[in-house]
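Case study 2.
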Amino acid sequence: MTFTTQLFQSENLVLEAYDPEKDAASEAAFSYDPNYAAVIDGEGVPHPLTVFEVKKKREEELKKGGEKDNFFLFALRRKSDGLFLGILTFPHVFWFNRYAFFKMTIGEAETRLAYFTEALQMGLRYGLEELGLYSMYTSTGEYEPEVKQGLEAAGFHEAVRQRENVYRDGKLWDRVFMEILQDEWKTRNAQVQS
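Prediction:
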């Protein structure tokens, strides 16, 4: 099977290089959502971040990624007006066995409902076609039902469940790592195109 789809554009969206100077302010505003804040800074307890904190974190990541060639970060924008919607990131690409963790996050809930599936397809095309990965995985849980359902609809399956690992809204939730294999992706796409 040969891949012939457009990688960086879809019907409504564009993937572009992340620009800390202009994108950090939008991400800082999105960080009031703990699920988005956890994507920016997964090391500690999710909390709102300042523009300076987001900018510094992203600049450090981009510098480190440029040195190691195993980190990718894209801004997800609406094609019609260039509005920053969120990010697609591959913070850990393991080239030796061709798998990667990725996170695709859209900041506003209404925008997420409108564009999640389309943005996810762009992320999958980039990872499985352009990077040639055999496997991609991400994390979510019942605290993000629309994300979990979107991943399942795209062909992801549950690989690992960490019981009561995420604290949101006064409750402990399971963190679920979900995975898709390149072969499964090819088979699904072949069926859709037939």
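The chain is about 40% helix and 30% strand.
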